[in-house]
Amino acid sequence: MSSDTSRILTDPFAVKNPLTVQVLGICSALAVTSQLEPSLIMGLSVTAVICVGNVVVSLIRKMIPNKIRIIAEMVVVASLVILVDLVLKAFLPDVSKKLSVFVGLIITNCIVLGRLEAFAMGNKPVDSFLDGIGNGFAYGFIITIIGAIREIFGAGSLTIPGMGKVKLIPESWYEINGGWYSDNVMMVLPPAAFVILGLLIWIQREIWGRKHPEMFED
Amino acid sequence: MSQQHNNTYTVGFVAVMSIVCALILSVTSSALKKRIDQNVLEATQLDVMSSAFALKADQGKSEEEFVKKDELLAQFANTKIVILDYQGKDLTDKVRNGASDEVFAKDVFKINPRKQEKELKAGKIEEKDLELPLFVLNKEDGSVDSYTLPIWGKGLWGDINGYLSLEADKKTVRGITFLSDHKETPGLGAEMTKFGWRSQFIGKQIFNNDGKLKPVGVVKGRVADVKPNSQEFYVDGLAGSTLTCNGITAMLDNCLEIYKPFLEAKPASEKKED
């Protein structure tokens, strides 16, 4: 793998993270991250849609008239999302039930449109596919962290797919049982995601920001 | 991307793209329709059954560990479907109109009490036209094990539908489910569908000590703090979702009121007619 190709995969995790550096897709990052599981599934669904969308747009990029390229990209994304929704409903009804409105939200995720517009319109299908993987997972990675933190402090437990709910805070700590602890209600509400995301942006800029001043370019 | 296309090309491109996308979607949709309908039907039957078989949640266990999907669906096949009128009389034979068990088990979900209530309020139908579904689960010896009835109302963002199961005494709540087509906020109001919260309803009473109908209410905060003396009529609220909780209280009040004649009838008089 050439260094250019591998950078397509790794950059989104570091200096080009769609969430913490480009600050795209914030709406879904606030809305679905109250728990670990939906965050994880949302990350995977977005990855799937970016990958396939990137490949499709990249394949027809020379045919798309410049004037209507955004609409053309939207049509591709919307069709894909409806397709994913139908397939989930038919073959994985339980997962589809859990995702409910989140699937529809993928259409409005700016990262998807951003990658199609910024990358797939000017690159070959294979590179576009890798770009989709990189950005999708980078997005999923960040919202999973946010989801885990919010669930631990908001509900005192962590729902791990396949393992069920794992209680992390001992019952005896709770006020109701004579202890001193109570769940942080703000963690369940969207503003908590803002705070955590802000902290993550801070950490990320501390790590990579000094070496890569281009991260701060406006 | 750099070359300019003329308008005819642009219009042609849009037309072709729309047709291709529409074609893909409609073919997929019709190919999967049967499967999706079957899934939806099974999910609805499962909701009916899981309200009847809700078990008290244990700390740290999920619903899947208690409830076996196939067993519940098999139980639904043993459930007797009854249609009541507004006075609690049995209308089943009239509504059923000779349909086979299998067909009727599907058709019963087309009866929409929410719509009927709306039409009743708008004056389009009369009270005597109401058709109220009821799912009666019998024990092996033929006596009633549980009654399950649909509940419907409004949450914060949209409609909430569900099922409420009562023990054979028609007084004690056996379980409750909310369908997944609600629009409540994930992580807040949507927590109402979670097993742990719903299982609080188990064992609560819908008639007060004077024998008046008093459906279970959702309080703000913890019942032990707010209503320490009448804990059997209330459940804990969901933090940050007061309006969803108020909606649930209102929907229980409203729906049980409609089923009141049936609920107030003595369990013995309900004894099998067939």
Please render the helix and strand layout as text:
The complex is a heterodimer of chains A (218) and B (274).
Chain A: H1 3-10, H2 26-31, H3 36-59, H4 69-91, H5 93-99, H6 101-107, H7 110-118, H8 125-155, E1 157-160, E2 164-167, H9 185-188, H10 190-208
Antiparallel strand pairs in A: 1-2
Chain B: H1 7-52, H2 63-66, H3 69-77, E1 80-84, H4 92-96, H5 101-107, H6 113-121, E2 132-138, E3 144-154, E4 159-167, E5 173-178, H7 195-198, E6 217-218, H8 223-226, E7 234-235, H9 242-258, H10 260-264
Parallel strand pairs in B: 6-7
Antiparallel strand pairs in B: 1-2, 2-3, 3-4, 4-5
Helix pairs in contact in B: 1-3
Secondary-structure element series of chain B? HHHEHHHEEEEHEHEHH
Segments of chain A where pLDDT lies below 50 for 5+ residues? none
Number of helices of chain B: 10
Multimeric state of these chains? heterodimer
For the largest beta-sheet of chain B, the strand count, sense and barrel status come to:
5 strands, antiparallel
How large, in whole angstroms, is the Cα Rg of chain B?
A: 23 Å
Structure description:
The complex is a heterodimer of chains A (218) and B (274). Chain A has 218 residues and is mainly alpha-helical. Chain A has one domain. Chain A is built from 10 helices and 2 strands, in the order ααααααααββαα. Chain A has a two-stranded antiparallel ribbon. The model of chain A has no long low-confidence stretch (mean pLDDT 84). Chain B has helices at residues 7-52, 63-66, 69-77, 92-96, 101-107, 113-121, 195-198, 223-226, 242-258, 260-264, and strands at 80-84, 132-138, 144-154, 159-167, 173-178, 217-218, 234-235. The model of chain B is unreliable at 269-274 (pLDDT under 50). In chain B, the strands form 2 sheets. In chain B, strands 1-2-3-4-5 form a 5-stranded antiparallel sheet. A two-stranded parallel sheet of chain B has the order 6-7. The longest helix of chain B has 46 residues, at 7-52. With 274 residues, chain B is an alpha+beta fold. Chain A binds chain B through residues 31-32, 34-35, 38, 61-69, 71-72, 75-76, 79, 82-83, 86-87, 89-91, 93, 97, 100-102, 121-122, 154, 157, 159, 164-167, 171, 176, 183, 185, 188-189, and chain B through 1-5, 9-10, 13-14, 17-18, 21, 24-25, 28-29, 32, 35-36, 39-40, 42-43, 59-62, 64-65, 180, 183, 186-188, 222, 224, 239-240.
